[in-house]
Here is the input.
Amino acid sequence: MSSQDIPEENVPAERATEEAAHGAVAVKDEPFADPGLPPHEHRIQDIDERAARRSERAVAFLFVLSMLATVAFIASYVAIDVDKSIYVFPIGHINALNFALGTTLGVALFCIGAGAVHWARTLMSDVEVAQERHPIEAEPEVKAKVLQDFKDGARESQFGRRKLIRNTLFGALALVPLSGVVLLRDLGPLPETKLRHTAWKKGKKLVNMNTNEPLRASDITVGSLTFAKPEGVEEHDEDFQQVMGKAALMLVRIQPDNIKDKQELEWSHEGVVAYSKICTHVGCPISLYEQQTHHVLCPCHQSTFDLSDGARVIFGPAGHALPQLHIAVDDEGFLVAQGDFAEPVGPAFWERG
Here is the structure.
């Protein structure tokens, strides 16, 4: 039963004044009286400005600690190797990067929360206010009251007065989101220059993918399509697929008179031309060759390249020609690379310039 439903004549006269001050109401013939609100007790910070300053510094310290933890989070992410492990008692051996990220981010978030709680408990107003029930619909008077309550709350929180708390809070809240921004890096490893280089180097022999034997120019006949890999790359290697995803090579022999591109002719040997097998659209392996037209076709999206004219795109969604590998023969007559591809293989990427 709320206080507004109790007639004033039911309130004992000797207690009316005292209890009215705190909302306490006793109902006639009821064994239990409405206790109302207890008397408000002032905190030490309410009456001693030095205590309030100490609380202010404590809150600011927590916010600053949050900022330092966020900076440590970012530094850990950059500096600690992803494969490094450490021993932490009593957990045992754990990943150092995960431990550092979890600890620093936990401290950053905890300090913001702890600082906000300490701020509310020691400096913000803690006066309890009883409010009568009101209709659900919001009337103009209610809206005005809500706005006024907001202003009163802002004033009582001392947000404008306690500049040290305000500034350090802004700093902590500004730095914490950087943790999430930094984690966006895990959408994929930074390519650096890895996409620009393959396993091909000057002097490396071209090895037949089927026979695993070094190739001679005589092994490649006119109209045939041969696939090659760099010397020293074996299928049982742990990174074989990753290496071949960039270094896969296809060899075709064309009559020198039918080669239209001057550089292609200079980089070939007796009509044997070597091009990347990786399509420049989305990286599918090219495997279809038409010997009459010297066209190769990507089976994924039908991008077509003319191997007699610098492997330029003549059909399909591919954006640029296939990279050519400069080849020659060594003293033993084996086909060897004269270096790496002149441009990155496969699809274009955001760092490519």
